[in-house]
């Protein structure tokens, strides 16, 4: 019904417009009449002024945007390489704004200034090699600068050196959640493949691999401040993308391969929450939420929780119906807290063994045990060949 | 001889012209006449455009007022996908996917190129028709068929394809991963395969026609820039579309015949799939090998139209004709070696990222040349601000605004943090979506008299332009900010992230502009369809243009010109040339003695 109403309103709007233009046409009877539908001097004049007005619109809208929405934009990166990206971004923005400001003025001002008039004759000006060289060479030089800066930053960020002292963590993606696996004391992740997935071993860790012995799996991502974290990413089903906007970090998770990204956090979660800009942002969000809560309560629904800032890992590659809610909390600890937290976790092998014991406990007799062995040990062993090629 | 006098002669000749009789079917349906095929493309494109834009209105409403109940949703989506008027997350992704597919391929590729290449190539180069009328007809009907299949996919029980218009596997390969990857995806792939066949037939025809059927005197450097743009666009299409076809075929193999081109090590819905050794990254390479040139397949024709419209209505030669041709060629060449900038963080070797950053940022140079040349063309002109001209100026404006942010996205380092956010959505909608649409509108307003023998109402045209221009900026300008705030695209709702709560009112503003802008396209639709029947009758050369199509009679005839095909004596941009009384000198007017020759 509403949609029908909307359609009717729009149709009426169209008719109204048509009538308006008709009236506009008819009102010109007698004085001066142009029905050719080609722009005449009067049109050129009006449209020329509108062009000038549009320039004002673009400028005002840009300034309004910078003031009102500018503060919403991410700032104060929480990683060591973050400021490098932000610097490059700022340099690029300055250039963009200069070019945008100048070209839009020229374009719209010319459209206004040279609006047509009967009897005027345009300048026959078809070529000027000097001008064309100028506006090929200047962008080329500016871009060369941007390219060099960009490549320098890219090389710094993306090429991870092996001998660096890093903490290795696996990020494991599946529809629609994230899991982290810590390499443990040896800092080497145990082998893993989807073909080992069974029961509690949802990441498909090869429990026979000695490197896997000390691997720890967690649904919360704890990382230490001041240490470079080397993420190795896997996905078990479709493409996902591990996006950590506050760390200026993103990498796709691709089934069938391991992708990598590394960064060093520079703020603990606590420290970042106390940054003045973040305090203001959270206060603003909570004000919005309080208003919404009041509306919800009035409707008899439950109020929203107040918000406290946390770093997040978001999925940023369309991955299915619940893509919009695939997230994991990231907690940046001091190195001491991080070590304490890690110590409290149980390893994957312990968990798998515990599960096996639990499933064997009620079962009695040799036959069941052999069956359990079949599935747990022999089957994966067969497939190791496939995995290892 | 003045151009008008010349026109009279032609009309006079026309009366003596012998007509062979056309039946309704051969004239309007299975026609081989390029002018009618152009109109078929245009009207099909408008229908697809209405659907494509309509879908975006629906999901914009969901983004502004998440999980609220709207009667429109249950009306259009049905109880299954909008129980009690609340849009479900499944259909949200489907709407986004089909919106992208329809707008990019069906409207801005097929309808834009199909309409104006077909209409203008023979008329502007002085040919009786396309090289092969039959191929041309088959090309249109394949396009029609693929449109029908794509629309049919909207009515599949599990929903249409929902893996995004880029259909990355494994999501698009596995029905277990998303319901839309069942029958919906199959139809999508079938439709695209037919579409590519149609596009290739069309493109081959355009290339052959431009090379072989130019009239006497029409050298390559006397071609209007429209033709250069269509010609180069067709070549890019021929180079890149087959690669998409191969990607689609391999995906069909993976989906239906158990191969593993794109799939490996997958555990889904409680079981391990047998696939081993493939890689989704391979698909991304194949897809973007078309996908990026596709941006220019969409954009170049729009720029070609703009060149023509701006020169004609500035009453000035286009500035830097040869530089414009060189920049079209440079853009076309570069467009085939930049696809990797869509994949900086796909997991490919970072070294490739460096290479693609370099090639991508190079594209800014020919683009800058084009923008500056347009601006210089306006300088000291005698601008006739017709609706077509407004849309062309609007195109230059959005092309600059949208193009500049490409410097950010093309830089691998900066792409890390804005990849797949709303920043990308803002960028490509301005630079290719809105710009190409403006080009299409400019073309329609400019060549409507040529197509239908009647004029569009200019006042409705003005209303259409100004509301569209304000809404286009209103929609996509704020989107840059929410992207820079880290908001990912393709999220059904952001309510699960209190972090983004402060972006919600921006989303409401964007949707408001989108709904107003969308509604005002009805003004255009009304103008377009009513003018076919009731528009003011046109004169032969309403815009006082130089190109050959305006020397053909208003009423369409087979073979375009009743008598001899006009001979060309000059380039198409002799506007306001000193030494001539009129401010335009059509291409078929012989050079005066000792007149300065600009292009041979």
Describe the protein's architecture and organization:
The complex is a heterodimer of chains A (389) and B (600). Chain A is of the alpha+beta class and 389 residues long. Chain A is built from nine helices and ten strands. Chain A has a domain of 156 residues: Sandwich (Immunoglobulin-like), CATH 2.60.40.420. A five-stranded mixed β-sheet of chain A has the order 3-2-1-5-8, with no helix packed on it. A five-stranded mixed β-sheet of chain A has the order 4-10-9-6-7. In chain A, a hairpin with a 4-residue loop joins strand 6 and strand 7. The C terminus of chain A is likely disordered. In chain B, 63% of the residues lie in helices and 1% in strands. Chain B contains 17 helices and two strands. A two-stranded antiparallel sheet of chain B has the order 1-2. In chain B, a hairpin with a 2-residue loop joins strand 1 and strand 2. The N terminus of chain B is likely disordered. The interface between A and B is large, with 131 and 142 residues.
Write a short abstract of this structure.
The complex is a heterodimer of chains A (389) and B (600). Chain A contains nine helices and ten strands.
């Amino acid at each position: 019904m509403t949609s029908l109403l909307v359609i009717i309103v729009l149709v009426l709007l169209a008719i109204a417009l048509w009538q308006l233009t008709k009236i506009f046409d008819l009102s010109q009877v007698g004085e001066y009449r142009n029905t050719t539908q080609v722009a005449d001097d009067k049109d050129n004049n009006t449209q020329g002024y509108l062009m000038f007005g549009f320039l004002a619109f673009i400028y005002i809208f840009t300034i309004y945007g910078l003031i009102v929405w500018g503060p919403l934009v991410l700032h104060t990166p929480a990683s060591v390489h973050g400021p490098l990206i932000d610097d490059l971004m700022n340099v690029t923005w300055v250039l963009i704004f200069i070019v945008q400001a100048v070209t839009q003025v020229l374009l719209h001002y010319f459209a206004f200034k040279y609006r047509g008039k009967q009897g005027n004759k345009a300048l026959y000006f078809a070529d000027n090699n000097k001008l064309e060289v100028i506006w090929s060479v200047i962008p080329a030089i500016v871009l060369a600068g941007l390219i060099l800066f960009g490549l320098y930053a890219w090389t710094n960020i993306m090429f991870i050196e092996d001998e660096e002292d890093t903490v290795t963590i696996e990020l494991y993606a599946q529809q629609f959640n994230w899991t982290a696996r810590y390499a443990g004391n040896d800092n080497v992740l145990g082998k893993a493949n989807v073909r080992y997935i069974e029961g509690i071993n949802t990441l498909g860790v090869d429990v026979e691999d000695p490197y896997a012995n000390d691997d720890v799996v967690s649904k919360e991502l704890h990382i230490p401040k001041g240490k470079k974290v080397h993420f190795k990413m896997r996905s078990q089903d479709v493409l996902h993308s591990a996006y950590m906007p506050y760390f200026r970090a993103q990498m796709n998770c691709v089934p069938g391969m391991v992708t990598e990204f590394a960064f060093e956090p520079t703020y603990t979660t606590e420290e970042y929450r106390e940054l003045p800009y973040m305090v203001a942002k959270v206060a603003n969000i909570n004000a919005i939420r309080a208003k919404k809560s009041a509306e919800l309560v009035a409707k008899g629904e439950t109020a929203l929780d107040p918000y406290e800032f946390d770093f997040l890992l978001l999925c940023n590659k369309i991955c299915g119906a619940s893509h919009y809610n695939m997230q994991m909390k990231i907690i940046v600890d001091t190195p001491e807290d991080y070590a304490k937290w890690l110590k409290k976790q149980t390893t994957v092998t312990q968990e798998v063994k515990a599960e096996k014991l639990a499933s064997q406990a009620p079962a009695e007799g040799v036959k069941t045990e052999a069956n359990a062995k079949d599935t747990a040990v022999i089957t994966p062993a067969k497939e190791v060949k496939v995995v290892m090629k | 001889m003045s151009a008008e006098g010349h026109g009279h002669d032609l009309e006079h000749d026309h009366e003596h012209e012998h007509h062979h009789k056309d039946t309704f079917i051969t004239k309007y349906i299975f026609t081989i006449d390029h002018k009618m095929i152009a109109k078929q493309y245009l009207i099909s494109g408008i229908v697809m455009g209405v659907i494509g834009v309509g879908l975006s209105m629906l999901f914009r409403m969901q983004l502004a007022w998440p999980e609220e109940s709207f009667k429109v949703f249950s009306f259009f989506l049905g109880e299954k996908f909008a129980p009690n008027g609340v849009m479900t997350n499944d259909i949200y992704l489907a709407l986004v996917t089909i919106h992208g597919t329809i707008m990019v391929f069906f409207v801005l590729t097929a309808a834009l190129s199909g309409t104006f290449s077909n209409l203008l190539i023979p008329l502007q180069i002085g040919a009786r028709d396309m090289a092969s009328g039959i191929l041309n007809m088959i090309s249109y009907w394949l396009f029609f068929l693929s449109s029908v299949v794509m629309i049919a996919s909207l009515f599949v029980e599990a929903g249409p394809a929902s893996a995004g218009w880029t259909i990355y596997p494994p999501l698009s390969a596995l029905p277990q991963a998303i319901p839309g990857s069942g029958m919906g995806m199959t139809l999508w792939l079938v439709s695209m395969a037919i579409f590519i066949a149609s596009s290739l037939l069309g493109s081959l025809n355009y290339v052959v026609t431009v090379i072989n059927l130019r009239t006497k005197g029409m050298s390559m450097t006397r071609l209007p820039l429209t033709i250069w743009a269509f010609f180069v666009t067709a070549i890019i299409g021929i180079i890149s579309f087959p690669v998409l076809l191969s990607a689609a075929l391999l995906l069909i193999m993976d989906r239906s015949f158990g191969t593993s081109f794109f799939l490996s090590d997958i555990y889904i819905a409680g079981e391990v799939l047998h696939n081993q050794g493939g890689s989704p990254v391979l698909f991304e390479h194949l897809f973007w090998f078309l996908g990026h040139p596709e941006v220019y397949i969409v954009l170049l024709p729009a720029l070609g139209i703009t060149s023509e419209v701006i020169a004609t209505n500035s009453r000035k030669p286009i500035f830097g004709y040869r530089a414009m041709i060189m920049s079209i060629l440079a853009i076309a060449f570069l467009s085939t070696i930049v696809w990797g900038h869509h994949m900086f963080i796909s997991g490919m070797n970072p070294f490739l990222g460096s290479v693609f950053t370099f090639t991508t940022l190079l594209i800014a140079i020919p683009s800058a040349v084009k923008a500056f040349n347009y601006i210089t063309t306006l300088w000291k002109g005698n601008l006739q601000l017709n609706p077509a001209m407004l849309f062309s100026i609007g195109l230059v404006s959005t092309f600059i605004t949208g193009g500049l942010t490409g410097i950010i996205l093309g830089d691998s380092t900066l792409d890390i943090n804005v990849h797949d956010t709303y920043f990308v959505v803002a960028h490509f909608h301005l630079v290719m979506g809105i710009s190409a649409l403006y080009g299409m509108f400019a073309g329609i307003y400019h060549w409507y008299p040529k197509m239908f023998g009647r004029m569009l109402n200019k006042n409705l045209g003005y209303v259409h332009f100004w509301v569209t221009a304000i809404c286009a900026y209103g929609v996509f300008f704020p989107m840059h900010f929410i992207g820079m705030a880290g908001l990912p695209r393709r999220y059904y709702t952001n309510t699960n992230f209190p972090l983004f709560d402060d972006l919600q009112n921006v989303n409401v503003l964007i949707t408001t502009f989108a709904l107003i802008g969308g509604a005002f396209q009805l003004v255009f639709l009304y103008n377009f369809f009513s003018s076919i029947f009731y528009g003011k009758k046109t004169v032969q050369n309403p815009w006082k243009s130089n190109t050959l199509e305006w020397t053909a009679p208003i009423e369409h005839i087979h073979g375009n010109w009743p008598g001899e095909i006009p001979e060309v004596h000059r380039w198409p941009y002799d506007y306001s040339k000193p030494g001539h009384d009129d401010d335009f000198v059509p291409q078929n007017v012989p050079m005066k003695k000792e007149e300065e020759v600009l292009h041979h």
